[in-house]
Specification:
- The complex is a heterodimer.
- In chain A, helix 7 (about 185-195) links the parallel strand 7 and strand 8.
- Chain A has a single domain (about 5-250), classed as Rossmann fold (3-Layer(aba) Sandwich).
- In chain A, strands 6-7-8-3-9-10 form a six-stranded mixed beta sheet, sandwiched between helices.
- Chain A contains ten helices and ten strands.
- The radius of gyration of chain A is 18 Å and the shape is globular.
- Chain A is of the alpha/beta class.
- Chain B is mostly helical.
- Chain B is about 80% helix and about 0% strand.
- In chain B, helix 3 runs parallel beside helix 6, helix 6 (about 135-155) packs antiparallel against helix 9 (about 205-210) and helix 7 (about 160-170) packs antiparallel against helix 8.
- Chain B starts with a helix and ends with a helix.
- The mean pLDDT of chain B is about 90.
- Classes of the chains: A alpha/beta, B mainly alpha.
- Chains A and B meet through helix 2, helix 3 and helix 6 of A and helix 7 and helix 8 of B.
């Protein structure tokens, strides 16, 4: 069985001022699979995931060297349209961050800024579909125009997922999406990811090793800015090749 | 003294301070209202002054104050808000932005009479506008400009970075993020700043004395001289100890207080309405 690679990373070095956050990272993200990135705090996994949609660009003083390829094209090329990259590679953050708008307007935002969907009925249809795909529709369908802040944490996070889905990305990046949620809400998110991977490519950063083991197909272990080991999830957790990986997944440090 | 006693003493002292402030404010308001409420009737508000202001109403003065406020806001709001947005979102750490911010802070300490002198020399004489509500409005605009910029900057700074991150992650441009997310969030704060600027403009006396003149007739054009309420109040109070004049001075003061009060109330109402629609 041959894998397709949605994104390939080569020789990635990232600097915050004088600090080197990522050293010579190389990784292949497989299409329609869930790739998890694990590692202790400060290991660079969040920095790494942010390079995949150029979100590091908005941090002052950041320098990125190397190549990040999306469908074979380097997204760090000079003439690349960043807003288009971010449409194709969406992101969900650690703490749910809905806009101070209604549930409907939150989801519609990505469509409105592009102005591509003109008719209100089409807009409403896309919003509904995104909310269904994010497993939130039933819970909000009769209060679409109420404030997003009325939702629980778990619901807000699913709203953020719907907001990312509505613009039909190809890759979804999730940076510790369930770390501020209770176990029930976490479970819902994890089930959602299993559904979504059939249509999208998913990359998830997680602090929670058991979650990585439950949810992902491939896992990369980061330590101090380097990728120590990258393999199928089952291998990483049962037959790790590097001692550091073994120590981390068995809980000897982290 | 034990820590618990210290705490009780501290609370008592702080309470006393707060009550003193409240008492002082109430004293001023009550004193003015008692002395001034007697003259306030429909004729006072809508009638023309007679006998140099010792009799009659203050309608031209009210119009004068309102016109100056409108001009000041019309000029200061777009420049101040635009400047505030630029400094917060686009200029970043550029040395120019630090110079502008420092300049704005420094301007805040300049006494209003000096602004008046500048306004006289520049708008009235150099530009040839003469003593006019336009000159007065422009000087006031200069005075409230730095506050408008600052309030805008603070309001924008208060918008959580997470909103911006979410917007960029969806592929929005900087301007889309600023206009659709940041400004919408910062709007109550910015509006409050504008409205407080109105309050300040309404009461300004020294600066307008040198730029608007003190003509008592109803202003008919931008270049008309006029006598805003604050100036009228002052002139009546110092002119002579005539019962009608002094009473009308207090009446004017009460009307002026009402305008400032209305401005503050609307600032609160707008802020509440905005934050309610977000919750």
């Amino acid at each position: 069985m041959t894998d397709n690679f949605k994104m390939k990373v080569r020789n990635l070095n990232v600097f915050y001022g004088k600090n080197q956050a990522l050293k010579d990272v190389g990784l292949d993200i497989r299409t329609n699979k869930v790739t998890a990135l694990i590692g202790p705090s400060g290991c660079g996994k969040s920095t790494f995931i942010r390079t995949l949609n150029r979100m590091n660009d908005i941090i002052p003083g950041v320098r990125v060297e190397g190549q990040v390829m999306l469908d074979g094209q380097n997204i760090y090329n000079g003439n690349v349209n960043v807003t288009e990259i971010r449409r194709r590679v969406g992101m969900v953050f650690q703490h749910p961050n809905p806009f101070p708008k209604s549930i409907f307007e939150n989801v519609a935002y990505g469509l409105r800024i592009r102005g591509a969907v003109k008719k209100n009925s089409d807009l409403a249809e896309r919003v509904e579909r995104a909310l269904i795909d994010a497993a939130l529709w039933d819970e909000v369908k009769d209060r679409l125009h109420s404030s997003a802040f009325n939702l629980s944490g778990g619901q807000q996070q699913r709203l953020c997922i719907a907001r990312a889905l509505v613009i039909e990305p190809e890759v979804i990046l999730l940076d510790e999406p369930a770390s501020s949620l209770d176990p029930m809400a976490t479970l819902k998110i994890e089930e959602l990811l299993q559904e979504l991977k059939h249509r999208y490519t998913i990359v998830i950063v997680t602090h929670n090793m058991q979650q990585a083991a439950r949810v992902s197909d491939w896992t990369g272990f980061f330590l101090m800015g380097e990728v120590i080991e990258y393999n199928e999830t089952s291998e990483i957790f049962t037959r790790p090749k590097d001692k550091r990986t073994e120590d981390y997944v068995t809980g000897r440090f982290g | 003294m034990s820590p618990y006693t210290r705490e009780k003493v501290a609370i008592a002292v702080l309470w006393a301070a707060a009550l003193l402030v409240l008492a002082g404010l109430l004293a001023i308001i009550i004193f003015l209202v008692i002395r001034g409420i007697g003259v306030i009737d429909a004729e006072f508000i809508f009638g023309m002054p007679r006998a140099g202001g010792r009799d009659g109403g203050i309608f031209p003065m009210i119009v004068g104050t309102l016109s100056i406020i409108v001009i000041a806001i019309a000029v200061a709001a777009p420049i101040g808000i635009g400047g505030g947005i630029y400094l917060s979102e686009y200029a970043g750490r550029h040395p120019l932005s630090r110079i502008i911010t420092f300049g704005a802070e420094w301007l805040a300490g300049v006494p209003s009479i000096i602004f008046g002198l500048f306004g006289f020399a520049f708008f009235v004489v150099f530009l040839g506008w003469g003593l006019s509500i336009l000159a007065g409005g422009m000087v006031l605009a200069c005075m409230i400009l730095n506050e408008t910029i600052r309030t805008t900057q603070e309001a924008i700074k208060a918008v959580p970075t997470s909103y911006r991150a979410a917007s960029y992650a969806l592929g929005a441009t900087k301007w889309q993020t600023v206009s659709r997310v940041v400004l919408k969030s910062a709007a109550p704060g910015i509006l409050t700043g504008i409205i407080l600027g109105i309050g300040r403009a309404a009461g300004e006396t020294a600066a307008i004395m040198l730029t608007v003149g003190s003509f008592m007739a109803l202003p008919t054009s931008l270049f008309s001289s006029a006598r805003p309420m604050s100036l009228h109040l002052y002139l009546l109070a110092v002119s002579e100890v005539h019962e009608g004049a002094v009473a009308r001075a207090f009446g004017t003061a009460v009307m002026l207080l009402l305008i400032v009060f209305a401005a503050n109330l609307s600032a609160h109402a707008i802020t509440r309405r905005f934050t309610r629609s977000l919750r």
